[in-house]
Design goal:
Length: 328
């Protein structure tokens, strides 16, 4: 595909503006004082608001394809941080929006370890021009998977690139058994396991809330080098309008194994309302008027919220609040 032939002069003008750093001017700024935490991203001295600002506005300079199941690029930016740029494809047309929606829900719940993500679009000509030299030959295969608008823009999400992520060895079945053991009330929890167990507890509840059946399919559970900070990322399969029973059953099974809960998470989940969530997600430039998350996806989220709250309430009734809400 040759963008200059398909899109003509408008695409060329878009490319020139983008190259000069003017393309970012059309991106609405992240609103100051938006709902959710303004503190640092887990394991970093950078605030989430700073990361969001850079993801939304810093010019994207170069792209290197990474991953295998979706069209994702490591993007070099005119910034102190880098991004993964995940584009909209025919296979997962809602994928980038799901990434952003998951992050915005995490802000409502006070989770600082869900990787920041912002809606962003770039000219397809800029994507092609910025492709790393050793990947240019792959352009035909990349291009046929892209969803390109009539304006020549590729929609996607800019996602904070976390350097140095490691495999915490919790993904296979043996790892899942270790997680379940840490979260059972009848299994003593060592003090040095508290922080990790708290994150895993919130992770399983969060995955159920957003309908993220893909956490344990391989490579979607990462940590820092110490193995003590879990990074929640790759949520492009979440927020499906409908989930089959085959996908829901394993998520529910993992949720029901969670018997130790964070008090802060439980409090935030109880306080979560449709209005709060809609106001938070509207802070993203891709979810403005007429672009809201559709009612079916929002409805699924709040149906699952009720299931999580019912599970926690039943645990508290049986074991007592002090024994269940053991994490901050």
């Amino acid at each position: 595909m040759r963008p200059r032939c398909r899109f003509g002069l408008p695409a060329a003008l878009l490319l020139c503006a983008w190259t000069l750093g003017l393309g970012s001017l059309s991106q609405p700024a992240i609103a100051d004082g938006s709902p959710g935490p303004a503190g640092s991203f887990a394991g970093s001295s950078l605030t989430q608001d700073f990361i969001l600002h850079e993801l939304a506005s810093a010019p994207l300079l170069a792209f290197r394809p990474v991953g295998s199941t979706s069209t994702v690029f490591k993007a070099t930016m005119r910034s102190t941080i880098a991004a993964a740029f995940k584009v909209t494809t025919s296979r997962r047309a809602h994928g980038p929006r799901s990434e952003v929606a998951a992050y915005r829900l995490a802000r409502c719940l006070g989770l600082a370890n869900v990787v920041p993500a912002v809606s962003r679009s770039i000219p397809v000509a800029a994507l092609r021009a910025g492709l790393s030299a050793d990947q240019v030959s792959r352009w035909p295969q990349i291009a046929e998977r892209l969803s390109i608008g009539r304006d020549g823009l590729v929609q996607g999400a800019a996602i904070y690139w976390v350097d140095g992520m490691q495999d915490p060895k919790l993904d296979p079945l043996s790892g899942q058994a270790r997680i379940a053991a840490m979260l059972r009330l009848d299994n003593p929890l060592a003090p040095q396991q508290q922080a990790l167990a708290a994150q895993l507890s919130s992770m399983l509840a969060f995955d159920y809330l957003i309908g993220n059946w893909d956490r344990f399919s391989g490579g979607n559970l990462k940590s820092d080098a110490s193995g003590q900070i879990i990074y929640l990322r790759d949520h492009d399969a979440a927020f499906a309008p409908r989930l089959s029973e085959a996908l829901q059953r394993p998520m529910l099974k993992r949720l029901l194994r969670v018997e130790r809960i964070g008090r802060g998470f439980y409090t935030a989940l109880r306080a979560l309302s449709r209005d709060t969530f809609q106001k938070e997600i509207a802070q993203d430039p891709g979810f403005g008027p007429g672009q809201e998350l559709d009612a079916q996806r929002v409805g699924g989220l709040f149906d699952r919220r009720q299931t999580v709250l019912s599970h926690i309430s039943a645990l508290i009734e049986e074991h007592g609040e002090a024994n269940v809400l053991v994490f901050p």
